[in-house]
Description:
The chain is an all-alpha fold. Helix content is about 75%, strand content about 0%. Helix 1 crosses helix 2 (about 55-60).
Amino acid sequence: MVLWVIAVLALLVAVVSLSHARRLARRLETLNQAYWELRYDYTRLRSQVARLDPEQAQAEAEPAASPAGAPTMSFVPLSSIKKKAQ
Length: 86
């Protein structure tokens, strides 16, 4: 009888742990997507500001200019690359 009680308790703990892990995975996916959307919006807004005031954008870009021949990095959001799993 004691073994059955232990087995049932272990099963309950496993089910609760699984549901908790799934909930955390969904929350992490939501946070990750929100992060990439905010980063995309930030980049888009920064480019809009640069178009509105090109003199200021040039002043900011001059100190951070990379050496000749160095590849430039551009932002590509992961949400546009990965497939939607639904």
